[in-house]
Design brief:
The complex is a heterodimer of chains A (319) and B (284). With 319 residues, chain A is mainly α. Chain A contains 16 helices and no strands. In chain A, helix 5 packs antiparallel against helix 12. The longest helix of chain A has 34 residues. Chain A starts with a helix and ends with a helix. With 284 residues, chain B is mainly alpha-helical. Chain B has two domains: 31 residues, no CATH class; 213 residues, MetI-like fold (Orthogonal Bundle). Helix content of chain B is 77%, strand content 0%. Chain B starts with a helix and ends with a helix. The chains are: A mainly alpha (319), B mainly alpha (284).
């Protein structure tokens, strides 16, 4: 039996030190074939539901959407890249591209910066209060986004609501938050910052806690001031974490749907659409499934590049 | 010298708390304002006088009563609860089995599979909802909450598996050996050793699964269009808005109630949840 067990291990090539020989589990000696009892068979069987899920509901739909994007509107004829060419000639589509990048870059920049500042602030506070502040700060991230955006929609309401009331009290003229393209873009980005900053905060706070205190102590002996400690210890130590969280957030922000859908529905005049909401508008609401699939697929290059960089970052930090 | 250090520390703390207070107002204002509005009378919401974030003309529960008696809110709530519980159970079963297999019973290609799982986690819903719309249609599940039970695990399983691999990996190997010596098989080892030892990870993953399925918006928006089968998020956002006059009080009451389950869960399990989310951060 022990031999049987080690045979199952031969195919596994790992960099780990050889394991101590294990005593094989005394499985009942019923008519179960030997290969089925092997470790590999059990391991693969346990992964099977996951493989089916990934294969059937992630990988297959992805390739299926490439196929779909090459059909005509009624899905009766193959049209090659005509849908993609059609989109590239439309001003509306370029507006979506422009706004998606503006939305993503601005929001990720502010989420990362504010998250970092907040993490530094909470890290400075006495230990016992930190847990509470961290806990409260994560509430925007726990609320279902579509519903909290509904709350923001009410806040942005022009005549009866809070934001314009505050502006008026301060002597500033009220703003048409959701009906003017510039302000509507600002509103969608603001909600995204509100929702996403807590995630950066807890990631960076965990990162700060993992930096060895000795580094700061020895730098204090060398006479480093607060700025120097931040510049030469904290930032280099968290470089990888900052890169990974920002890339990860780039993917999630770029692919956002809920905020724009609830707040502006892409309006006014398509000025706040993202790839996701525009794909929904074209593919589901207007019933042109192939064109919608093509819109969504335009996201793929950005997602692939970010994913590649994330993987490289993780491998580097493990090396 | 000592006094000046102390004074500087005090000044730093004052600055920190001031900045923190500003951030907290920003973070908590929307839920606060939603709750306040849901208790206001319609006259007060519509009047242009008064301070918007105070209740000055009396508290009312009318919006909540109307929600239960005049709308399909309870139906949506039930649908969401069914979907969220089932999806959480399915997703956790798949994740636990796979994570156990990948973290302990290594086999040919298991390292590659681990990377592949992480990559699928990065595939967003917005890329998949159109082909899934067609697939759900072909399976005859369009306009049914079962389409969500089928599809939502894709948004959860990759992350939960990835998170659980980390937790299972930290279970000391001596425990497996002890279990094997005692005559446990692999399944017993998972149930009696791994799950109890990795319980914090299990709690974090379960909470993640529940929160994500409760909050799902794009898939029900695309797949479901009848009130009978609708879930809370889409139901609140689309059907509680009637005509041109927005019933802000009712809308906010609906949103507050719909937010409550994940938020309450979070309040109790906060520490597990945060350590689960940041488990990867400290390693990176």
């Amino acid at each position: 039996m022990i031999q049987d067990e080690t045979q199952g291990e031969v195919s596994v090539v790992t960099a780990r030190p050889p394991r101590r020989p294990e005593v094989a589990p005394p499985l009942p000696r019923r008519a179960v074939p030997r290969w089925l009892r092997s470790r590999t068979a059990i391991a693969v069987a346990m992964c099977l539901p996951l493989l089916l899920l990934i294969g059937g509901l992630i990988a297959y739909p992805f390739f299926y959407s490439i196929y779909l994007s090459m059909l005509n509107k009624r899905e009766t004829a193959f049209v090659g890249l005509a849908n993609f060419r059609f989109l590239l000639r439309r001003d509306t589509f370029w507006l979506v591209v422009h706004n998606s990048f503006l939305f993503t870059l601005t929001a990720v920049f502010f989420k990362a910066s504010l998250g970092f500042i907040l993490a530094l602030i909470i890290h400075t506070l006495p230990e016992r209060g930190q847990r509470l502040w961290r806990g409260i700060a994560l509430i925007p991230w726990v609320m279902p986004l579509a519903l909290s955006t509904l709350g923001w929609w009410w806040i942005f309401e022009p005549t009866h609501s809070a934001l314009n009331w505050i502006l008026v009290q301060l002597g500033i003229s009220p703003k048409p938050w959701l009906s003017e393209p510039g302000w509507a873009r600002f509103a969608t980005i603001l909600v995204n910052i509100w929702y996403g900053t807590p995630f950066f905060l807890i990631m960076y706070l965990a990162g700060l806690k993992s930096i060895s205190q000795e580094l700061y102590e020895s730098s204090a002996i060398d006479g480093a001031n607060a700025w120097q400690r931040l510049r030469y210890i904290t930032l280099p130590m968290l470089k990888n974490l900052i890169a990974i969280t920002m890339l990860f957030s780039t993917i999630v922000t770029f692919a956002n749907f809920d905020i724009v859908r609830v707040l502006t529905r892409g309006g006014p005049r398509y000025s706040t659409h993202l790839f996701g909401t525009y794909a929904f508008n074209v593919g589901i609401e207007s019933g042109d499934v192939p064109l919608g699939a093509a819109v969504a697929l335009f996201m793929f290059p950005i997602l692939a590049i970010s994913a590649f960089l994330i993987l490289r970052g993780i491998q580097r930090s493990q090396a | 010298m000592i006094r000046s250090i102390r004074a500087r520390r005090k000044l730093t703390l004052v600055l920190c708390y001031t900045a923190l207070a500003a951030f907290m107002v920003f973070f908590l204002f929307p839920p606060f304002y939603m709750a306040i509005t849901s208790f206001k009378t319609n006259q007060e919401i519509e009047s242009l006088r008064g301070i918007p974030f105070l209740i000055q003309q009396g508290v009312t529960l009318k919006h909540y009563r109307d929600l239960f008696t005049k709308t399909d809110f309870l139906l949506y709530f039930r649908n969401t609860a069914i979907v969220a519980v089932l999806v959480t159970l399915i997703a956790m079963t798949i994740s636990v089995l796979a994570a156990y297999s990948l973290s302990r019973l290594r086999f040919f290609g298991s390292v590659t599979l681990g990377t592949a799982i992480f990559l699928t986690y990065l595939v967003p819903e917005t890329l998949l909802f159109i082909p899934l719309f067609k697939i759900v249609g072909k399976l005859g599940l369009l306009n049914s909450k079962w389409s969500l039970v089928l599809v939502l695990p894709t948004a959860i399983v990759p992350f939960c598996t990835w998170m659980l691999i980390g937790y299972f990996g930290s279970v000391p190997r001596e425990l497996d050996e002890a279990a094997l010596v005692d005559g446990a098989n692999y399944l017993q080892m998972l149930l009696r050793v791994f799950l109890p030892v990795a319980l914090p990870g299990l709690v974090a993953a379960t909470m993640f699964a529940f929160t994500v399925s409760w909050a799902s918006f794009l898939y029900p928006m695309a797949f479901i269009f009848s009130s009978q089968e609708q879930v809370l998020t889409v139901g609140t956002v689309t059907t509680l808005i009637k005509g041109d006059v927005y019933h802000w009080g009712g809308l906010m009451a609906g949103a507050v109630l719909a937010c409550l389950p994940p938020v309450v869960l979070y309040v109790f399990l906060m520490d597990y949840y945060i350590s689960g989310l940041t488990a990867g951060a400290t390693k990176a």
